[in-house]
Design brief:
The two termini are 20 Å apart. The relative contact order is 0.22. The chain contains seven helices and six strands; from the N terminus they run ααββααβααββαβ. Strands 3-4-5-1-2-6 form a six-stranded antiparallel sheet, with helices on both faces. The protein is of the alpha+beta class. Helix 1 packs antiparallel against helix 2 (24-36) and helix 1 runs parallel beside helix 7.
């Protein structure tokens, strides 16, 4: 990783370290936007497909419109490629995955999620980062949507993401709530017998 990239990561961590209790999400979202160019990043706490021992209640911390979140819950949640077998394998093994990477082996409903729902809302690709609390073992993810007309996911973004996830873990020991929150009732994801596309 280049020195400039390290400096950007350090800036993000400095902002996060200075966040007041209960204000981690808005500080983190602003820090990754300013220093990494990751606009509209959101946190998913307790995603059912990664936190299988949990009570199945996802909580989203996001600035997305309420109707976007509601449509996701009501129509698209079970077709989320990150909850597929390939998605879980990538996120578990590497701590990071992209929608474009998973789309290569996606089912038709999963491609429809990307091509219809996300693209209609200006999202052409998405970067997902796993963050595990070392104190509680709780799992969160940081999602970063990308508009292909404005910016594509670069190899440097993947490197930043793989490095940032573990560095953020200590700050997720406490509840990160206190900002726009959407509660999503989760169902067990359907597992599919497909070869993993995560290298």
């Amino acid at each position: 990783m280049e020195q400039l990239q390290y400096r950007r990561l350090i800036k993000v961590l400095e902002h996060v370290a200075g966040a007041r209790e209960g204000e981690l999400y808005p500080v983190l979202a602003e820090a990754v936007a300013v220093h990494l160019g990751w606009i509209d990043a959101f946190v998913a706490e307790n995603p059912a497909y990664l936190a299988l021992e949990s009570d199945g209640q996802e909580q989203y911390l996001t600035m997305f419109r309420p109707d976007f979140v509601e449509e996701y819950v009501e129509r698209w949640r079970l077709n989320n490629p990150f909850a597929s077998r390939d998605g879980i394998a990538c996120l578990t093994r590497r701590g990071v995955a992209t929608l474009g990477q998973l789309r290569l082996r996606a089912t038709e409903p999963e491609r429809d999620f990307a091509d219809t729902f996300l693209r209609r809302n200006g999202i052409d690709d998405m970067l997902k980062i796993v963050i595990r609390s070392p104190a509680t073992g709780a799992v969160s993810t940081l999602g970063v949507p990308f508009d292909g007309d404005r910016r594509a996911i670069e190899p440097s973004d993947l490197l930043m993401a793989a490095t940032l996830g573990p560095l953020l873990s200590p700050y997720f020991n406490a509840n990160v709530v206190q900002s726009p929150v959407r509660d999503l009732t989760s169902a067990e994801p359907t597992t599919r017998s497909r070869p993993t596309g995560c290298s």
